[in-house]
Amino acid sequence: MSESQFVSSNDIRTRFSQAMSRMYRQEVPQYGALVQLVAEVNAQTLAAEPGLARQLSESGEIERLDAERHGAIRLGTPAELATMRRLFAVMGMQPVGYYDLSVAGVPVHSTAFRPVADAALMSNPFRVFTSLLRLELIADEALRIKAASILERRRIFTKGALALIERFERAGGLTAKEADEFVAEALQTFCWHAEATVDGQTYDKLQQAHRLIADVVCFKGPHINHLTPRTLDIDAAQAAMPRCGIIAKEFIEGPPRRRCAILLRQTSFKALEEKVLFQGDDGRRSGTHTARFGEIEHRGIALTRAGRQRYDQLLADVRDGAVANEDAEAYARRLALAFEAFPDDYDTLRREGLGFFRYVLTAQGKAAVGAADFESSSRELEDLMAEGLVRAQPMVYEDFLPVSAAGIFQSNLGSVERKHYAAQDDQAAFEAALGAAVHDEIELYAQAQTRSIEQVRRAFQAPVSA
Ligand code: OOG
Ligand code: NI
């Protein structure tokens, strides 16, 4: 089989995320309403903010915006996580980042599967926040052993999906027909199964240990629990949600609204109650389960380690200063006030090394290096920028935030679910389960910035042919 007969991983990822979106729209109808709302808000925002429209079209993000989604799943065993890594690899998605959520009272640790190469991100940045249950955090030993044995028995991947993953690994790609089969088979793992694998009593016990534990352990597979479109104005979208009959979470997670958006802001709507059929004859055949919700996100510039440290510190200060029964507006005011200490223009973010940028030739720069009388030179980047030959584009943050993720988890589990775990983060155990190391997300942005600078340097040292 020649390589040209294979479809690209980008293509498989796009087919998969579209199929997932169609499925979730049917399973959770409010998701469809949310996607429509976000499309309207984005169109209005682009019309009202020509500067933002230009920035997004220069970076190429405008092309991917309508397709841009992230989702989340929760897995039960190391073997499930290891196979999930291979499944996502077929779609060009790799594990990026390690998130320990036990500190926030959620007994999981996580990574995000997403594309990492510049071109793949621009083609479709589909990301899946993937958590692994930490069974060792169930205090009741009998319950822990029971949960482990239930999970040990289930098979979350279809035979067809496993065969196609192997085929991909052996042949180095999938044909168009195989890719379609793969998408259909893989989707089975993420769909909702109303039939629980346990009886009602076991469900209740696991639910008492932690609602998240019941969600992971009691079902045939890791149903996708939300799918998130990207909005260009999260405040406008949040304000419009009630009009569409959607009840949003009160606080927007993450940084405050700013002229130059940083990192990631997120809000969600409450999980819906779905009918469940239990196994066995403990007298309870049916019940309900709440796990699946909707979320929107507003993405801004990726921060360097220094920028991220400052963000984390400011956010921690704001959270430490929380007063009892504070409403969303009062919180937003304190948040905005605290973040006045964080520069809010791209030039300062760049000069102070707080944000990541991609350096590109301007039209003038391209004309200069393409001209017949071009003379190569090794001028400083800053000089090339001052002369209008090179421009710095803010790099979009492609990842997640642990404090925000915990807030999203909590809001959907009910605030009473804040358990205290004396656990340590355990990236080594996570990576052992995964069967691979996770990428360091900040390193990826730093590399992308360096690559862009090298490209600019090469262009000015020798004329580029178009
Ligand atoms: C994942 C919550 C985290 C985000 O956007 O931060 C998340 C979950 O509830 O499984 O999706
Ligand atoms: Ni999410």
Could you describe the 3D structure shown?
- The chain contains 20 helices and 12 strands.
- Helix 1 runs parallel beside helix 9.
- It has helices at 9-27, 29-48, 50-59, 61-64, 78-90, 118-123, 141-153, 159-171, 176-190, 200-209, 211-217, 234-240, 305-320, 328-338, 346-351, 363-370, 381-386, 402-413, 427-434, 441-461; strands at residues 6-7, 69-75, 94-100, 108-114, 127-133, 174-175, 195-199, 226-229, 264-279, 286-299, 357-361, 390-394.
- The chain is globular.
- It has 466 residues and is an alpha+beta fold.
- It binds 2-oxoadipic acid and nickel (II) ion.
- Residues 72, 74, 129, 131, 225, 266, 295, 400, 404-405, 408-409 line the site of 2-oxoadipic acid (OOG).
- 2-oxoadipic acid binds at residues 72, 74, 129, 131, 225, 266, 295, 400, 404-405, 408-409.
